[in-house]
Amino acid sequence: MIGVSPLPTVIGLATVTGDQGPAGPRQIYFGCASSTFTTTPAYYYPNSTIFTITTLPVPVEVNVAGYLRNLFVRTTTNACDTDTTFVVYLNGSATALSVVLTAGSVAMVFDTTNQITVAAGDKITFRSTRPAGTFGIGLGTTYAMFEAVPT
């Protein structure tokens, strides 16, 4: 089962060991209460509503080989004056699993075409970036989910 390693910063997971949940696909969630940023990448924490523009958050660690697919991103408000790109990162590198949220749009955007292969021990992070725009303009509550499927 693809899942998270024990994360001391996430309540309730500090003592979890072994496979979690039933066999088969599971959702991995990233989110934030709001994100105001300019050209600095915003890093989203797993299973949380926190984001940061200064440090890389604790990644989700893959515990069984498989693949990631079906990225969905939704925001409640969007005052950005430029497009925002959301990307799944694998071991610190950008992957093809990504979406672009058009400036001002609050529509759900998704990538159901691309998928990436993962191995046990790989680390997944999620971030958003946008080109230079008006300082202090950002997104409201933002949710991102994608599916992890063991092989």
Commentary on this structure:
It is built from no helices and twelve strands. With 151 residues, it is mostly beta strands. It has a single domain, classed as Jelly Rolls (Sandwich). Strands 1, 3, 4, 5, 6, 7, 8, 9, 10 and 12 form a ten-stranded antiparallel beta sheet that branches. Strands 2-11 form a two-stranded antiparallel ribbon. Residues 1-19 have low confidence and may be disordered.
Overall outline = globular
* Helix content class: under 10%
Low-pLDDT ranges: 1-19
Structural class, by secondary structure, is: mainly beta
The tally of strands reads: 12
Terminal-residue CA separation:
9 Å
Which secondary structure elements does this structure contain, and how are they paired or packed?
Layout: E1 26-32, E2 35-36, E3 42-46, E4 51-52, E5 60-61, E6 66-75, E7 84-90, E8 93-101, E9 109-118, E10 123-129, E11 138-139, E12 142-150
Antiparallel strand pairs: 1-3, 1-12, 2-11, 3-4, 3-10, 5-10, 6-9, 6-12, 7-8, 7-10
